[in-house]
Design goal:
Blueprint: H1 23-47, H2 49-76, H3 82-90, H4 99-122, H5 131-134, H6 149-170, H7 181-200, H8 206-213, H9 218-222, H10 224-253
Helix pairs in contact: 1-2, 1-4, 1-8, 2-7, 3-4, 3-10, 4-8, 6-7, 6-10, 8-10
Length: 254
């Protein structure tokens, strides 16, 4: 045995260096985080909403995101939402080369969440897959309060833009306490669902909408396009505006 210490052994009194997460680790983290999000909010909507109402579902979404970000944020950044990934990329906070991989992992994670919930439902009393239609996002017939396409697009675009503004704000270096960022993000989602829930079922997340639409029937699949386009538009608008208004002046004064 050699007397020379291994190259990766840290000097006494210092913490060992931690390797940066690999691409595979980041993608698995995004998959698991999106799984938790869908399992939490859709599970609450299916099993508990009769007792908790919209408030319970809103908190289920907010808390699911908080848990996911605390658990996997240090690995992948904790996006769990294709709109967030695209918004961060256009704001210059995320590499475009990683966008497709993140989105694919998020969609797969969301679908797995719905599959597990379907498995729970299938062995329960009075099983009816149509329950997924009631938790799918959409307008007209799929809107809980009967709102049309125009209202749907407005609320999903604006709510997603607000969500991205908060994410960009609380994760800006030197502008906020990063350890509290997950709470701010989760609470923002809770508020937004309370506003948008009756209109669109409050998604702001294409991966979550895809996850329920695949079991929600023909109408849910037909209206799915709006649940993909609107959040992405809102996120891209927020990314462009935030970068132009807040990040550019900061760079000019640096």
């Amino acid at each position: 045995m050699s007397d020379t210490a291994p190259a990766d052994t840290a000097p006494a009194g210092t913490a060992p260096a931690v390797a940066a997460p690999s691409t595979a680790q980041k993608l698995v983290a995004e998959l698991l985080g999106t799984f938790i999000l869908v399992f939490g909010v859709i599970g609450a909507a299916i099993f508990s909403s009769a007792n908790t109402g919209l408030l319970g579902v809103a908190f289920a979404l907010g808390l699911s995101v908080v848990v996911g970000i605390y658990a996997f944020g240090p690995i992948s950044g904790g996006h769990f939402n294709p709109a967030v990934t695209l918004g961060l990329a256009i704001a210059g906070r995320f590499a475009w080369k990683d966008v497709l991989g993140y989105i694919a992992a998020q969609v797969v994670g969301g679908i797995l969440g719905s599959v597990v919930l379907l498995g729970v439902l299938s062995t329960g009393p009075k099983f009816d897959i149509a329950i997924f239609r009631s938790v799918s996002t959409g307008y007209d017939e799929l809107s809980p309060a009967g709102f049309g396409l125009g209202s749907f697009l407005i609320v999903e675009i604006v709510a997603t833009a607000i969500f991205l503004f908060v994410i960009l704000g609380v994760t800006s270096a030197g502008r906020a306490a990063s350890n509290l960022a997950p709470l701010a993000i989760g609470l923002t989602l809770t508020v937004l669902v309370l506003v948008a829930g009756p209109v669109s079922n409050g998604s702001f997340n294409p991966a979550r909408s895809i996850a329920t639409a695949i079991f929600g029937g023909q109408l849910a699949l037909t209206e799915l396009w709006a649940s993909i386009v609107a959040p992405i538009v809102g996120a891209l608008l927020a990314g462009v505006i935030y970068k132009a208004v807040f990040d550019r002046p900061a760079k000019l004064t640096a």
